[in-house]
Amino acid sequence: MKVTFYPYQHPGERPKTDKAVWTWHKVLFDSTTNLLDEAGKAMATPTGKLALGVFSPIEFFHEPPLRRHIVPFRQGMVLEVELTPNDKMRTEHLDKSVHPSWIAEVIHTVGYYSLLRWCGAKKSDGVFWVHTANAAVHPVGFSCAYRRADRSSGYAAIPPNIIFDNHSTDEWCKYAKERVLGKFTPKESFDDRAKEICFNKFKVGDRVETIDDDQSSIIAPATVKRILGRRVLLEYSKNDIDKADHMEKENMWKDMNDDLIYPVGFAATMGLEMKANKKYKAHVKAIADAIKEGKSEVPYAKNDARKEKVYQWRKNEKQTAEWEVDMVCEMIDRLDECQNVLKAARVIKVLPDGFLQLGPDGADIISDSFHVHQTSPNLFPVGYAMEYSIALQGPKGDNEEVFDWKSFLKRTNYKPAPENFFHCATACNVAFKVGMRMEAIDQNEKMLCPATVKAIKGRLVLVGFDGWDDEYDQLYDFRSNELLPCGWGEMVGHALQAPVKTAVEEGKVLQAEEVSGDDSDE
């Protein structure tokens, strides 16, 4: 059986993209036979459902673009797909002014990818993979709607060359209608998906504040240099930092809702130390004064990211916890290289508007601290690590590897933050299963990598990067926007890194399988 991959065409414009490094195409090709076998079995069962694949379904992720469009995709759904540019129907039989499209039926969906078969194709033919965001994919009725709106548009329902001879020309229209009758197809709004794919609340040139990479307790101004999907590349603002302090700092990729991105004026409003020149400090002092005095006119610059824009992620968050100085908890330290452990953390300051200054306890707590909102998913109650068999790192210099909360609290008189201060989600709320494949942002190098779920630890998902050793595993909240469906990188133009080859042959590392929900590890 010949299976093809429809070349990706982005719907509309998108920012400058990365050079492609690796794609899921080979994995999908290797899985096609299994998927077709599963599809055949499913059609013979009363439910008509495919077994759950090891690829994480798009509905398992928190806020993936196009979720509302792709979740309804199911086996037997029909789409209208434009013929590929190199289809012989286009190159040998039709005028260049004609834009042919034909109906295809969904066999299976894997992340953002769908396995389709042209309607009218023989069982061993006409099967192809396509990215669901592809500009060539439409709801059925697309070509007819275009022709009604503009007869000179050239859009027409014409089958691909490989199946054209299966029916006479007069029979094609009747055949197509019979195939789509009673079948589901996406809503018309599916063709407006370009804006949703590339949505980002920031724009290039926006100015924000973030942590200083030399000392995380200090705030520094930064500007958005580049955007890829929901990710932003921040560059410390040379115009706002003295040359002596600026030096050569690395740019930082962050999710647009990263809780270490702050609005302009954050440090001044909170009374925090800031690495900035006199001009910028005077600018944000005026902003802070206006906010404190309740003035309706706040002197923001045109490119300043305001509180309303930056804090969109907090629109549904309730602030009811009454944190206190020296309260302790456990946390994932996103600034540390080791991302598969929790650390004992302590509150240094309780700041306005629900923010805390806290850090990993120990002699360097001040310099290692940072400012995070009390609703951060990276904070956990005392005892969380023990409950879910996660390594817990104690204060520096305090026998970190064999840390015990009971003796530590007795010795220090610190107060554990009450459990109701933290997110109450548990493993029951996590849809991911062990063995599921996805794309994940490496929280150290900020690269996008193929990854696999290795364990569920309460509301945390332990993810391993394909081919890498266990020591590089990382923990993510199950709602993290750094966990993404397969195909996200190709869609937004973000380079997906290749899996590391291990002693196991590459084919086995990358091979995808079909498993049932009952076979998945809990």
From TrEMBL:
Biological process (GO), any one: negative regulation of DNA-templated transcription
Signal peptide: none
Keywords, alphabetical: Repeat
Pfam annotation, one family: MBT
Gene3D superfamilies: 2.30.30.140
InterPro entries: Mbt, PcG_chromatin_remod_factors
Gene Ontology annotations for the cellular component aspect, listed alphabetically: nucleus
UniProt-recorded Gene Ontology molecular function terms: chromatin binding; histone binding
Residue ranges of MBT repeats: 170-277, 403-499
Protein name (Swiss-Prot/TrEMBL): Uncharacterized protein
